[in-house]
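Example 485, ligand nicotinamide-adenine-dinucleotide.
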Amino acid sequence: MIKGQVNISGQFHGMEEREHYLVRNPANTEEIVASFPKLKREDVKTAIESAKNAFKLWSTKKPVERSQVLYKASQIIESKAEELAILLTKEEGKPIADSMFEIIRTINLLRFYGTLITQEAGRVIPSQDNDTFIFTRREPLGVVGIITPWNFPLSLPAWKIIPALATGNTVVWKPASITPTIGMELVKIFYEAGLPSGVLNYVTGSGNEVGDEIITNEDVDGMSFTGSLEVGKDINKKVGNRKRFTRLQLELGGKNAVVLTKNGNINLAIEQVVRSAFGVTGQACTATSRFIVPEDIAETVLNKLIERTKKLAIGNGLDKGIDMGPLASQEQLDKYLYYVELGKKEGAKLVYGGNRLVNEEFKRGYFVEPTIFDRVSPDMRIAKEEIFAPVISVLKYKTLDEAIEIVNGIEYGLVAGIITNDPKEMKAFMENVKVGVVKINKPTIGLEPWVPYGGVKSSGNDVYKEMGVEAINFYTTIKAVYQGY
Ligand code: NAD
């Protein structure tokens, strides 16, 4: 068992004086991965104070010096990639190839922002006066609070922390309680790469205490949160009640749809939907959870979907060739079982799966069957609410307009996909769906770190995008300077 540590003021502490909680392997809950402290408000206050103190030094480092730390961190991660991937899978449950994908993305993010920061300072704007030189300066916000979920426990925090640090901010980061170990490793790597003390603080514990202190502490200058809509709404209210205006980025849930048209390749659609719906056990904000198919070919499509789903290899993500690991926690399992029952009650037809796996191989973990509901109508709760588990609803349509209406007829707006070879359908879809990301003949999961990302409607507050060049807009403020010659 790993003895978990937090980091406050650049020091790693086991915090023996605090209550600890256990982190279990979701593929085998008898295996304890780590124990971590539940910090108290006063600990978080100290972490915020230390980030505030470290800001003077870090923000005045030259971009190239900050870039060197990021590059060094990328090299360290590369040198331990396999070890980190195994840890990530043990803690979160996803197949090892998906963990490796998170590691590669983190390396790419470090190198991308490490380079970008040496290029981005502001811009020169021509003045109306001959004797005035006008330019803008990008300046860091100060102390940034970062609160993250468990489903991408490495690359998702990385896409917040890296642009924050690159632009000269200091950070207080709270990971999700069920996946703190891989986060601790990332913090260790940053310090090994030469990050000065106090620049990245790592605080574990409950959302209600540790998270709440970050949200309400007036010394935090900006906050980036990814998680559920419910918690996001609560945070939005609390931030609104602070004494001063505070920059807030919210990335929340999704209920992503893929539309297949009669001009699309059915086999391609099946491959991509199966991968995006079940690949990371449905626990991706970009997962496909609604499959919208033309009424007159629906039966053929459904049969192919079932046949392909039957072939998925379910098991411990550390084993070779596994397509789908366990759910990440008891809470996730309960949610899955709740929505399966709800779907049946609502009158949808359960055509595949719907059960927890309880035989010898699976009974110690949170393993479930990939699940398909047919005859789902757009007004059913299983077609509207985020389940965040391997459950897909099949819905039928007659015209593309109707399909787009179904895509848009929910409160979320994260990703939407279309499978078609008709450029007119691609254009109509891309222009009319209300989402932050459109995928054409591509799976809804899978994002590139140099591309802006974020949801609209209830999938995020959409003031700033994450990743890409755009991410640095959130972590910097722009000051205009008028200089007379
Ligand atoms: P969650 O909202 O329960 O928790 C997210 C984080 O917030 C955790 O660290 C948690 O401890 C903390 N938290 C909980 N209550 C808090 C409070 N009152 N104040 C401050 N912090 C608090 O979400 P989760 O179950 O960890 O993650 C799953 C959710 O995340 C899903 O809804 C999923 O769609 C969403 N998600 C969104 C994206 C995206 O980019 N849009 C990406 C990944 C996950």
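Summary: The chain has 15 helices and 22 strands.
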